[in-house]
Amino acid sequence: MFERLREDVHCVFERDPAARTFFEVLTCYPGVHALLLHRLSHWLWDSGWRWLARFISTFSRWLTGIEIHPGARIGHRFFIDHGMGVVIGETTEIGDDCTLYQGVTLGGTSWDKGKRHPTLQDGVVVGAGAKVLGPFMVGRDARIGSNAVVLKDVPAGATVVGVPGRFAGRVASEEADAHRAATARRIGFDAYGTTRDMPDPVAHAINSMLDHIHLTDRKLVQIAQALAALGADISELDIPDIDPCEISSTAPGEEAPPPGDNS
């Protein structure tokens, strides 16, 4: 029990730069209070003490402004930041290392007695005011933007924004980011927009082009190697960098001067 308490408190320091001391977090963070009371009410719920579990849940809502049904299942290192107005339904399942902000609803869309609330896998972050409604899966490390309304499955690593929620990007792997950065440096511009948490459509388009260029380069290298093995003379050529300043200074309809021409 004390190990779980230590985990619940220490995870706050990783996700809230305002947290200063263990005592401050334990005494002044309503998200921690709501979680601790939920651990107790959930144990009572599973033990058959349903009324007492609901009473503690109601007391927790009065104390913290956070409503967590005692039947909800919550994993390790769960953090509710600010917390006011958060609602978590009875059949909700939340994995490890998840984060919710204020005003989030993990709710249902039917009156069925069975599974009617979402399941959040490990590492999910749900932004302020978002509504995740229905018995579907939010994949590992997914991000749900503030005020989004999500009504269907979210793939692992995806970012969802808007009403209704729409796919706006995917968390890139470190390998993909490294390939994009290397390709961008080689062709002469900065690969802005490779940040993982910004669902920028322009950045997404640039990342898609960089991925395409990287794969095309790999194919060309394989073709050159195959031709060289057949005896063809394949000269080694370096691709020159593109100077963005030269491109931007060229008037519409005017050809850019050749490299080295300063006239």
Summarize the entry for a quick read.
The chain has 263 residues and is of the alpha/beta class.
Number of helices: 7
**How large a portion of the residues is in β-strands, by DSSP E?**
5-15%
The gyration radius over C-alpha positions equals 26 Å
Question: What would you call the shape?
Answer: elongated
Mean pLDDT: 79
Question: Helical percent range?
Answer: 25-40%
From the coordinates shown, what is the CATH architecture of the largest domain? 3 Solenoid
Structural domain count: 2
Low-confidence stretches: 187-198, 247-252
The CATH topology name of the largest domain reads UDP N-Acetylglucosamine Acyltransferase, domain 1
CATH class of the largest domain: Mainly Beta
CA distance, first residue to last residue: 76 Å
Structural class: alpha/beta
Secondary-structure element pattern, one letter each: HHHHEEEEEEEEEEEEEEEHHH
Please state how the strands of the largest beta sheet are arranged side by side: 3-6-9-12-14-15
Major beta sheet summary: 6 strands, mixed
User: What is the CATH superfamily of the largest domain?
Assistant: Hexapeptide repeat proteins
Give the beta-strand count. Answer: 15
Please name the defining characteristics of this protein.
single chain; 263 residues; alpha/beta; UDP N-Acetylglucosamine Acyltransferase, domain 1; five-stranded parallel beta sheet; 7 helices; 15 strands
